[in-house]
Amino acid sequence: MPPSTHEGSAVHPSRTPEPPEPPGGILAQLRADHARIHAMFHAFAMLDDEDDAGREALVDDLCDELALHAMLEEELFYPALRGVVEDSLLDDAALEHDSAHELIVQLETLFPGDDFFNATVAVLAEEVAHHLAREENLLFPALARTGADQVALGLRLRERRAQLVADLASPPPVIDGAEPRGLLRGQPGGPRERRSRPR
């Protein structure tokens, strides 16, 4: 049924429409990231419970994608909004990133078949869906209204993404056998490295 236009309805004809998102701009790229993340969670839900290798690989890719996306937002998107939206909105968004990171760290030690693997992925999916919706409904329109150069920000985001992806693809550093490994893993915002479980 089409939305009603009578007084008190959800339609506000006097509201200024949001400026369009230029192709290649920062908002278009972040929106594409969000769509990819949603698709990955959906793909996980569709996998057969017996496909342990597929489920593990997809969760690893999903967690890497989330970590990369969060780093890009924290370095480029959120700073562009400082002074434009209430600090509390950005603080809440950063806390949501921290919460997702905690779940990602938990997933580093879990494997398909473990008691809390599916539940942890489900909680991560719920928290991420809530976070992405808040960004798209509150933060994306706020940046669009500022008149910021989305294309220039998008170029910086593409360059930084390429740098981070290259860092993830590079071989891990040589580790001194006397150095505790725990100091090198689990750093907030850093690339994940799943611990191998002996089979």
UniProtKB/TrEMBL annotation:
Q: Which residues cross the membrane?
A: none
The segment(s) forming the Hemerythrin-like domain are 27-143
> Do you know which InterPro entries this protein is assigned to?
Hemerythrin-like
Q: Which stretches are annotated as coiled coil?
A: none
Q: Where is this region: Disordered?
A: 1-24, 168-199
Q: Which domain of life is it from?
A: Bacteria
Quote the protein name from its UniProt record: Hemerythrin domain-containing protein
The source organism is Massilia consociata
The upper taxonomy is: Bacteria, Pseudomonadati, Pseudomonadota, Betaproteobacteria, Burkholderiales
